[in-house]
Sequence to fold (1490 residues):
Amino acid sequence: MPSNSNTIYYTLTDEAPSLATCSLLPIVRTFTSAANIDVKITDISLAGRVLSSFPDYLEEDQRVEDGLAFLGDLTQDPAANIIKLPNISASIPQLKDCIAELQGQGYAVPDYPENPQSDADKDVLQRYGKSLGSAVNPVLREGNSDRRAPKAVKEFVRKYPHSMGKWSMASRSHADYMRDGDFYSAERSVTFADAEDIRIEFIDANGEVTVKKALSMQAGEVLDSMRMSAAALREFLEQTMDDAKHSGVMWSLHVKATMMKVSHPIVFGHAVTVFYKDLFEKYETLFDELGVNPNNGLSSVYEKIESLPRSKREEILEDVHACYEGRPELAMVDSVKGITNLHVPSDVIVDASMPAMIRNGGKMWGPDGKAKDCKAVMPESTYSTIYQEMINFCKTNGAFDPTQCGSVPNVGLMAKKAEEYGSHDKTFEVDAPGTMRVVDSTGNTLMEHTVEPGDIWRACQTKDEAIRDWVKLAVNRSRASDTPVIFWLDRNRAHDIQLIKKVEVYLKEHDTEGLDIRIMTYVEAIRRSMERMIRGSDTISATGNVLRDYLTDLFPIMELGTSAKMLSIVPMLKGGGMYETGAGGSAPKHVQQLQEENHLRWDSLGEFLALAVSLEDMGIKQGNAQATLLAKTLDEATGKLLANNKSPSRKVGELDNRGSHFYLGMYWAKALAAQSEDTELAERFAPLAKAMANAEKDVVAELERAQGKPVEEEGYGYYHADRAAVKRIMRPSATLNAILAEINS
Amino acid sequence: MPSNSNTIYYTLTDEAPSLATCSLLPIVRTFTSAANIDVKITDISLAGRVLSSFPDYLEEDQRVEDGLAFLGDLTQDPAANIIKLPNISASIPQLKDCIAELQGQGYAVPDYPENPQSDADKDVLQRYGKSLGSAVNPVLREGNSDRRAPKAVKEFVRKYPHSMGKWSMASRSHADYMRDGDFYSAERSVTFADAEDIRIEFIDANGEVTVKKALSMQAGEVLDSMRMSAAALREFLEQTMDDAKHSGVMWSLHVKATMMKVSHPIVFGHAVTVFYKDLFEKYETLFDELGVNPNNGLSSVYEKIESLPRSKREEILEDVHACYEGRPELAMVDSVKGITNLHVPSDVIVDASMPAMIRNGGKMWGPDGKAKDCKAVMPESTYSTIYQEMINFCKTNGAFDPTQCGSVPNVGLMAKKAEEYGSHDKTFEVDAPGTMRVVDSTGNTLMEHTVEPGDIWRACQTKDEAIRDWVKLAVNRSRASDTPVIFWLDRNRAHDIQLIKKVEVYLKEHDTEGLDIRIMTYVEAIRRSMERMIRGSDTISATGNVLRDYLTDLFPIMELGTSAKMLSIVPMLKGGGMYETGAGGSAPKHVQQLQEENHLRWDSLGEFLALAVSLEDMGIKQGNAQATLLAKTLDEATGKLLANNKSPSRKVGELDNRGSHFYLGMYWAKALAAQSEDTELAERFAPLAKAMANAEKDVVAELERAQGKPVEEEGYGYYHADRAAVKRIMRPSATLNAILAEINS
Fold:
C-alpha cells in the first residue's frame, strides 16, 4: 500500500450527500491542495457495492473497484484519514430497486433471489447479503466512537434554537416493551480467559445436534447469547394493540431493522402479522404462494398482489381495511400518502423515530394528519427503557430547552463489530423445538436456551482489545473536555456484568485522579445525564454499540435539532482516523425535492466539521502546520456561515446546498487571507477571497436561476448516477466554476 | 415525679380509637398485671385538652388534669413508656364543633373568637391555638422516629394482599408543583456555631423595623427561612386550572393544612379564591362583612351565608355554580354528598390523599362518582416531586405488587419539633411590601427575603441534638435490620446542605463498617427505594420531619394497604420510649357506623403491635423477664389473629373491633399457657385460656347480637363522651365481662 500520509479519502455515497459532494469537493480541493493534501474519492455507494460484488456478471469496462474493501484495508494503516458520508443502509426493497435500476442501465447483475434453491442462487444471495443493512459501518469502524456537539454549533443553537414541541404533564404517550421473554430477559454471557474454538449448536427434540456456526474466540473476548420468544413477542404485541385501542392512543412500532438486520425484520414481521392477523390468516396459502414476506412490511402484500386479477386484489385490499376496525390507530410515516408505520421496516428505525416523537411533545402523526399521543412499542426491552425514562422526564420537566441545555457527548464501544453489530451471522430463526447452545472445543456447554419454533436466537461478540481502547478513549475524552463520564452498564444484564469487570480493570491503567467516572444502569445514567443537562452541564456517555447508535441521535436531536451537526470521529485502533458526517441518514426526500424543483436542501455542515477535524488530525500526525491552519480557518468559516445564516434553506428559490458551499469557500478564503500565521497561504488565498466576494451576487443569482424546475438530465439514476450529469446539475454557476478553474490552473 | 418504671401510660384520644380503648384495656390489664405492670390512662382527647385549657371558666368538679402537659413532662423521664393512639388534629371547624358540644353538656368554655379584638379574646384565641392542628405530637415526640412494617403484618400481606388499582401506561395523572416562587426556591439556611439570640424582623418600604419574633438559638442549631410568593402561587394555581381544563383531567389540591397549620391553610385559601375567583371578586365586601374565611374552604361561604335572606343565598349559590363553568372538574372528597376537594382544608391532606390516588391507579373520584385521571396540585415543590416520581414509576412498572414488595422503613428526624413542625410560631403572612430578615444579636443580617403583601414567610429550627440522635438511630436500625440506609437530603436545598454537613460528621461517630449508607436527593432516593422495593429488597429512608410524615403513609399504603399496621416507635432522647399506633387517623367514619349500626370496624392491630414493643422495651430496660415473655406471646397472638382472620370486618353483623379483642385475649392466654419458660405465668393463664375457649361461641354471639341498631346512650358525646356510657356500648358481652372479672378478682 502506498503512503497515505497526505491523502484524505472522501467517500462517495448515495442520495443527497453524494450530490452535495459533487459541488463541495472542487471547493475543498482548492484549499487542501495548498497544503499538499490530496482528497481522493472512494465509491462506497450501494450501486457501487452491488457492481463490485459481481465482476463475473459484468463487461470488463463495467467492473468497478471494491471501494469498501479498499477502505477496510486502509483502516489498518496508521496514516488512514477517511471522511465518511452517510450512505444507504439498504432494506431488501431498496436493494431490489437498485438492482432494477442497474439492470436498466445495462448492467447484467442478477436478480435478487427471493427463494434461493440452487447453489448459484445461494451464492448470489450471499453476495447481496453483504450490501444489505448496515454493511459499510462494520467494515470501516475499526475503532471506537467519539461523538460530540461542536462548540460553534452549540453556540449557534443557544442563540437560534430549533423549535421544540410543548409537553403536557397529562400526555398519554409512553414507550412500552416486553417484560419477559425478550433478548434482555434471556441473555447469557461468558468471557474467554484463553483463545478457544466454540460451536453454536441446535439440538432437536430427538437429541440430534446440528452445528449452526463454528467460531474462534480470542483471549479476553466476551460472547453473549440471547433468545426472544416468538410466542411471548406475539402476545406482547397483541396486548399492546389492545391496550392502545382501549386507552385511545395511537400504536406505533419502533425497531432497528437496518442495523439489527437479521433479528429486527423478523420482529417487524411479527408486528405486521399480529396487527393484520385476520388478513394473514385468511390468505395464508395465497400469500405463501405469492411470496409475501411480512418482514418487509405490508408493502410486501401490496407488491405481491399486483400480479393478481383486479377483483381478487380489491377483495384483499378490503380485508386489509377491515383489519383496522378492531385495532388502534396506527402512527403514520406519511399520513398524506397513507403510509403507516407497518409499511416498510426501514421507516420506523428507533433512533430516528423516537427522538422525533419526543421532540414533538410526545406526539406522532395520525391517519388524519393530526399529531397525537402514542404508545411507542419497542419490543426488545434492553434499550427501550431509556425512552420511557426520557418521556417521563419530559412530562415532568417539560421539553428540553436548547438555549439552556448541556450536552451529552458519546464515547461508544464500536470497534471490531462489537456487540449486536456483529450478530448478523450468528442470528437464527428457530424452526423446531429444541435447544440452542454454545459449546467449547471440549464439548462443555457454556450457555444454552430452550427454544420453540419462531424464536430468534443470536450471539454477539466483543473483543477485549475494543473494550480496552474504549475505556482509554472515555478517560481521554473526560480529561480533555473536563467532563464527567458515565459508563452505561446494567449490573443486572449478563453482558454488562462481563463488561463492568473489564472496565474496572482497565480504568486502573489510566490516571483518573480528579475525574468523575461512574458506572450506572441505562435508566440511572440517562436520568442523571438529563438532570445535569437541563441544568446546563455536560456528561459523557460511555456506552455499548447500540446505545451509541441511539444516543447519538437522541441527545443531538434535543440539543441541536439534528444529529447531522455532530462531530463523529472514529479514532482507529491502529492509529488512523475516520471522520463521519451527518448521522441523520442520506435523505431520500432531499433527492425528491431536487428532482422536482432543482433545490437541494442537504446541509453539508457535517462535512465542514468533519473536514476540519480530519485536517486538524493530519496536521498533528504529519506535522503539517498548513493543514492545522486550514482546519482552524475552516472552523472560523463554518462559524461565520452559521452566524450569517448561510446554511441551505428548505424552500426552493432560496439559498440551497450549492450556495452554502460557495459561502463556505468565500469565508474560508477570507479567513486564510486575513491570518498572519502563514503569509504564503494568506497571499495565495487573498485573490480567491476577493474574487469570490466580488462574484457573490452573480453566483447566488446563477444558483437561484437554476432552481424551480424539474431536473431532466440524461443518464441520471437514483442509485447509480452518471457523474458528468451530476456535475451539470450540481455545479450550475459558470461564474463560480470559472473562479475555481482560475485559482487551480 | 414518682417512679414510672412499671407503668405504661396509655393515651385516651378521640373517635374510634378512644372507643376501642374501652374494650381493649380491661383485657390488656388482665395480662400486664401478671408482670406487675400498671397500665394508666391519660386523657389527651381534643375535649380534654380544651377543658384543661380553661379551668378558670369551669366549675371545680368540671376541671380536668392537663394530660398532655403531664405526658410532656414524662418524656423527660428515662423510664417513660407511653402508648400513643391516634388523636384528632383539629381544624377550626372541628374545634368549634367540640366547643359547642362541651357547652351543650354544661361546660362554660368560651366561644372560639373569630375576630379577636379585646385582650380577653386574644387570650382565649391563644389558648385554643394550642389545641389546633397537630398539637399533641410536637409535645410528645421528644425523640426521633422509627417506623417499620412488623414482620407478622408483612407476612400476612404477602399471603393475603390488599387490592391495588391497575395503572395504565397511558394514564394522564400527574403531580404538579411550583417551579419558582415557592418555599423551596427561596430557602435560606444557617447553622449557629455558638448559642445566639436572634430576631425575625420586618422592614417596611420606609425602612421601619418591626420585630416579629425573638429567639434564642442553641449551639449547632440550624435555622431556615423561606418565602412563598402569593403572586407566584396564584399564577401557578390559575395555570394548573387552565391546563387541567385544557387537557381534560380533574383538578385536585393536596396540602397539609393540619400539620403546616399556619402556612398551608393560607395556600388552601388561595386555591379557593382562585378557583372561585368570580365569586370572591363579586362578593368581596359582603364576604368580608360576613367573615367568610376562604382558608377554611368553600364550606366557610356556605356557613356564613346561612344568616342571609333566602333569595340572596340562592343568588350566591348560583354564582358558586357559575364558577364551575370555566374551570376543570374538581376531584371530590365525597361525590355522593357533593363535597369537593376545596370544601375544607383538612380533607385534602397530602399524606393520605396522594397514596390513595396512587393506590387507585392514579385516579380520584369525580363529581359523577367515576374514577378519573387527575392533576394533583401540590404547590410547594419541596416534597411534591416524590409523588410525580412515584406516578411515573407506576406508569412505567405498573402498580406495586404487595405479594412481592420489599419495604421502606423510616427513620425520621422528629425530635424537638424539628424543621417545619416547629414553624407555626415563626410563620407570617406579610401585609405590606418590604423585607423579612433574620438578624443576630449584633444586628448582622443572616438571611433575608424581599416580600410582597400576601407572601408567606416562615422560619424553621432544627436542634443539633436531634440531628445527632437521628444519625445514630439510622445507623442502629441499619445494623439491627441489616438494611441499607438512604439519607434523603437534597444537595440543592439550603436546609439540607446544612444537614448533609452534620450527617457526614456524625456518621463518623459510629461503626458503619459494612453498612450501605448513602445520601441522595428526594427524587433519587425514592427512585432507588422503589427500584429495590419491586425487586423485594428493603431500604431504610432516613428523612426529615415532613417526609417522615408523608413516607410513613405512602409506602405502608402501597406495601400493607394501610399505615395503621406500622410499628411506630419514638426512642426518646432521654431514654424513654413512646409507641404510637395507627398512623391512619382517628376514623370519624367508623364512629358514624358505630352510631348507626353499633358496629365498630376500627382495627386495634396497631395497639397490639405497639403494646408488644412497649412490653419488650420494658422487659429490657427494667430487667422484667415476665414483660419480655408477655411481649413475645402477644406477638404470637397477633400473628395467630391475622392468620385466622379475626380482624374486624367492615360489615355489620360480622366480627368487629370488640370481637377481635376477645380473640386477641384468647390467643394471648393460650400462648402463655402453652409456654414453658415461666411456669407461674403458664399456670396463671391456663384457666383463662380454657375459659375463653369454652366461651368463644357465646361471647361472639353476644357481641353479634349487640349490633345492627343505632346506639342510643344517654350522655354519649362525639368529642366528650361519658365513660360509663362508652363502657356500656363497648363491653356488651356479659360472658366476657364475667370471665375477666373472675380472673382479676
Observations:
- The first helix of chain B runs from residue 15 to 32.
- The first strand of chain B starts at residue 7 and ends at 12.
